[in-house]
TrEMBL record:
InterPro entries the record matches: CBASS_pafABC_assoc_protein (IPR051534), WCX_dom (IPR057727), WYL_dom (IPR026881)
Keyword Chaperone: no
This protein's record includes keyword Hydrolase: no
WCX domain ranges (all copies): 258-328
Domain of life: Bacteria
GO cellular component labels: proteasome complex
Domain WYL: 159-220
Protein name: Proteasome accessory factor B
Keywords of the record: Proteasome
Species of provenance: Leucobacter aridicollis
Family annotation (PANTHER family): PROTEIN PAFB, PTHR34580
């Protein structure tokens, strides 16, 4: 059977919408010929049997998620599954009585769902996502131009999340910015935590018998599950305190590491970096922002990615790293090492 271009989570969600919307239920023919993810292939006779098997698998997936798909026999032909009507009771997707969300809260919850995507959501989270979408209303999180999801830069996320839930020990290569080759780390993943717009792994390091925080973007290669060696410590039995302390340390580091950046007013750099920042000065075309960070290397790369819309001012280490990155790009694309770096107001340095 030719593969559909529709992602499986979109097909299953479209099936849920159709089954909930129909009060009397829909036959298999009606579903396969009209539901997004099935209908694009239903017109080809050779694919009907494969599509029916796909439909049966999708039904079982929904039932495993705790969403009961009801099957109602036709009064005239009981037992004939071609005439059986399928439906989902709206009560199965209702949120608890008295629980309501504003449009903004719905949007933020949808963004949280997007951030994890189908492959890394737990069963409970997938059930919650289905109920969330059934509420309707609010803005589509994709419409606000924010990509909250794990992208190709974080391919390790699903494996790490699975290890968190299973309490497994894993190994991966970790590339520090000041080293030529990655280091192999052997850790018990405790939590994936988003901080400063980037995903971090809070883990208990088996080599150091201490909590460590890793930036997912620096994990290179696969994440491998491994059996504990005789000299490996056990996984912490109460990781909540370790996680809380790690997050607290990140906040303390952020407060201690202050930076200033000049951004072009109303640019994408301004929109991203201004959140939580103090405006130190402002003129007709730009303003100077002050804020904290936990990672000067990553911030330098972000600033450089905005070109002339953002210029690092302080500390000198951040400014030097951003300039080096810009000059490397300039040299790669045919510029000279001495090419000036343009300030947002049109000046150069």
């Amino acid at each position: 059977m030719a593969r559909s271009k529709v992602p499986s989570e979109e097909r299953v969600f479209s099936l849920v919408l159709a089954l909930v919307a129909s009060t009397s239920g829909l036959t298999k023919h009606e579903l396969l010929s009209s539901v997004y993810g099935y209908s694009d292939r239903y017109r080809e006779d050779a694919q009907r049997a494969s599509l029916e098997r796909q439909f049966e698998r999708d039904k079982e997936q929904l039932r495993e998620l705790g969403i009961p798909v009801e099957a109602v026999d036709s009064p005239g032909e009981p037992g004939n599954n071609q005439h059986t009507r399928y439906r989902i009771s709206k009560a199965a997707l209702q949120v608890p009585a008295g629980l309501t969300f504003t449009d903004r809260e719905l949007m933020m919850l949808r963004m949280a769902v997007l951030a994890w995507r189908e492959g890394s959501l737990t069963d409970d989270a997938r059930r919650a996502a289905m109920k969330l979408e059934s509420l309707g209303g609010g803005r589509d999180a994709l419409s606000i131009g924010v990509n909250a999801g794990f992208g190709t830069a974080e391919p390790s996320a699903p494996a790490l999340l699975a290890a968190v839930e299973a309490g497994q020990l894993v190994e991966f290569d970790y590339q520090l910015p000041d080293r030529d080759t990655p280091l192999t780390r052997r850790v018990y993943p405790l939590q994936l935590h988003r901080f400063e717009g980037r995903w971090h792994l809070i883990a208990f390091d088996a080599h150091r018998a201490a909590t460590r925080v890793f930036l997912l973007a620096r994990i290179s290669g696969p994440v491998s599950v491994c059996l504990p060696a005789d000299d490996d410590p056990d996984r912490p039995s109460a990781p909540a305190a370790l996680i809380e302390r790690a997050v607290s340390d990140m906040h303390e580091l952020q407060l201690a590491t202050r930076v200033t950046v000049r951004v072009r007013t109303h640019s994408r750099a301004d929109a991203r970096l201004a959140r939580g920042a103090q405006v130190r000065s402002e003129d007709a075309g730009s303003r100077v922002l002050e804020f904290g960070t936990v990672d000067l290397h990553e911030l330098a790369a972000i600033i450089a990615s905005y070109g002339s819309d953002a210029v690092a001012l302080e500390p000198p280490e951040l400014r030097a790293r951003a300039i080096d990155l810009l000059r490397a790009v300039d040299a790669t694309h045919g510029g000279g090492a001495s090419s000036p770096v343009t300030e947002p107001d049109g000046g150069s340095r």
